[in-house]
Write a structure and sequence with these properties.
By secondary structure, the protein is an all-alpha fold. The chain contains three helices and no strands. Helices cover 38% and strands 0% of the residues. Helix 1 crosses helix 3.
Length: 81
């Protein structure tokens, strides 16, 4: 591990911004059937949707995402199945 990376918080995220709604719709698509998405009011402490940034990962770890959301979600779904 790089000494620069010790005790650092580093975001490993892709290049595209994905909403929770997008994730739910993708799961429906992969599952092959419609699942009712239930929308509720936010809860205390809920994530407010600030965009994460992987600049530090690129700089300190020389890291870049290799798989996009569409591909990665399929890989994860098939693994979990």
């Amino acid at each position: 591990m790089s000494e620069k990376a010790k005790n650092q918080i580093i975001n490993l995220e892709g290049a595209q911004s994905i909403s929770i709604k997008n994730v739910a719709e993708r799961v429906q698509e992969l599952h092959g059937q419609e699942v009712k998405i239930i929308y509720t009011d936010e809860r205390l402490g809920d994530y407010k949707g600030k965009i994460v940034d992987n600049t530090k990962a690129k700089k300190i770890l020389n890291w870049e995402p290799k798989v996009n959301f569409h591909e990665g979600s399929k890989i994860l779904y098939n693994y979990m199945k």
